[in-house]
Amino acid sequence: MSTLRLVPGTPDAVLSALSGVLDGSGTPFAPLPPDPADAARVRQAAAPDEPLEDGCAVVLTTSGSSGEPKGVLLSRDALIASATSTHDRLGGPGQWLLPMKPYFVGGLQILTRSVLAGLAPVVMGESFSAAAASMTGPRRYTAMVPTQLARYLETDLDALRSFDAIIIGGAATPPGLKARAAEAGVTAIPAYGMTETGSGCVYAGEPLVGTSIDFDDGRILIKGPTLFSGYRLRPELTAEVLRDGWFRTQDRGQLVDGRLQVIGRLDDVVISGGVNVTLPSVQARLLEHPAVADAVVLGVPDAEWGSRVVAFVVGDAGRDELRDFVAEVLPRTWAPREVVPMSALPMLASGKVDRRRLLEGVR
């Protein structure tokens, strides 16, 4: 078995280590975030002193936005399959701009695509527009999280328009944001995927070539060459989620007009006062309110209700107004019992909302 090498999570260090594993000259590695606490979690999940499972090229640690971080084993073949199928979907290889952290799968795969395309990636500095203007490739691509897209639509619209395609991942893209991008002439493609699927494997609801989608009582199942090999030193957990070649995600979904529609996580349905409440539906409705800039809805343990529905909202609307707004299209029993006003939602480095931090503030 191989040993695992820890490398700094900087673009240059990750690119160098990645180039080595892709051409067969390097050794498996795990990138370390600069934050000491995050680096400690990576060290724990990656377990560099333990023998490494066969076939692993990279160990990435999940963000732990809603649970315990895990070391995800990605093979060289999975990395290449993801990058190749992405280029095929977008219309061919191109030059990539990196505005994301390279120690998460979205950023790492931007570097993988760059290596396979033979074009140096452009690493974003303080200015998105300046980085975009420095690109020289015949086709230009980037990837970002929804919050970045929303920001750049306000501040860097011309730069956004200069890209042949922009992959949006890391979190669900609000319908209003997709509409704004389309109206502005920006080619933004929502992607669904995760570290275990080698980054996005479903673009605009359609699986990439080689990827198959199925369902088990609403649970999304994924099969294909981009899948991870397992969790680092967690064979029991691997056996739970990898069965007969299918990855059993923690998300619920359905096909609508032949396209995958992600409804939410399996744990996004809570029982409040004896009523099943689908939290993503409440959140989606709140985001339709003209005075709400951003929102996330969570279930908080409650001695009286079992779970109480709490909305964390960036905007000017008050609790009663938002409850009435939700109740116009959803059952009033689904309306949030508590609304927490915020100037901004706390985010993890991966671009996902830090749910644990929000819950700590209301318990």
UniProtKB/TrEMBL annotation:
For this UniProt entry, the molecular function terms from Gene Ontology, in alphabetical order, are: acid-thiol ligase activity
What InterPro entries does its record include? AMP-bd_C, AMP-bd_C_sf, AMP-binding_CS, AMP-dep_synth/lig_dom, ANL_N_sf, ATP-dep_AMP-bd_enzyme
Query: Boundaries of each AMP-binding enzyme C-terminal domain copy?
Result: 283-352
Gene3D superfamilies named in the record:
3.30.300.30, N-terminal domain of ligase-like
Q: Print the keywords alphabetically.
A: Ligase
Q: Report the residue ranges that make up the AMP-dependent synthetase/ligase domain in this protein.
A: 40-203
The protein's name? O-succinylbenzoic acid--CoA ligase
Q: Per the UniProt entry, what species is this protein from, by scientific name?
A: Kribbella steppae
